[in-house]
Amino acid sequence: MLMRRWARHAHGLDLPHYAISIVRGRGIDTAALRWLADHHDPADVVFVDGWTGKGAITRELSDALAPYPDFDPRIAVLADPGRCVDTYGTRDDFLVPSACLNSTVSGLISRTVLRADLVGPNDFHGAKYYRELAGSDVSGHFLDTVSARFAEVAEAALADAERLAATDRTPTWEGWAAVERISQEYGIHDVNLVKPGVGETTRVLLRRVPWKILAQRGAGADLDHVRLLAEQRGVPVEEADDLPYTCVGLIHPRYTRGATGADGKTVGTASDKTADKANTAGIAAGRHERTVAAR
């Protein structure tokens, strides 16, 4: 929505905007694609996102659109620390609000719902609507606050865009290479348990069973909230010199990627049986923490 407002402010364009679901390992909402093709020229459709992590969704989108050659499979993002797209605002790794505030800064909508008992093969993907958080919703406030500063930065932003357009923006996939290296070095052997970037690291600490946090040596106040959350969860923070991101969150390899726990440190020291019980209890605790964080 901010991109849409900026297009209107800076270029006088009124662009339609839609949300479309894509799930790693499950693909894209094909019903939504058909709707887009029926109502717009697919060649005019641009897929956008907030940021790239290691580039998993970038690859998923490319694969999902292979049967639909009229759509451009490239994705444009605000931040590309993973260096896996060629259209971006910056490659700096910074925290996008939706990474930690989730639905309360995203119109109270968050998470795809894709259950066979709720969503048929020809239906749009479902979405979770958090109506109980309506009193804490700051989506409009966020959009209005940022939009109010457009005029102050318009000249500099357009100049920066011209300079950026003249540079070599070829994706290097440096982030994906770093994730594969970290997965091997730490004995995880599963890139899905390595969550790179400050946004994904924040989500690991809020939602998952965190194991370790790797922080770029010398990273300053931008990681204060990560250090605080890590301290609260009892998770060690290790400094590293060769990260293309400001930080990387490692999900505990003993648990599935969907697990949520209250104390990653306890998980790491408990016996398997005790840990399983702790993890079951932690699921409820993790949900509570996430709700509190969203508020």
Automatic annotation (TrEMBL):
Pfam families: PELOTA_1, StiP. Residues 2-146 form the Cysteine protease StiP N-terminal domain. Residues 173-252 form the PELOTA RNA-binding domain. InterPro entries: PELOTA_dom, StiP_N. This is Uncharacterized protein. It comes from Streptomyces violaceusniger.
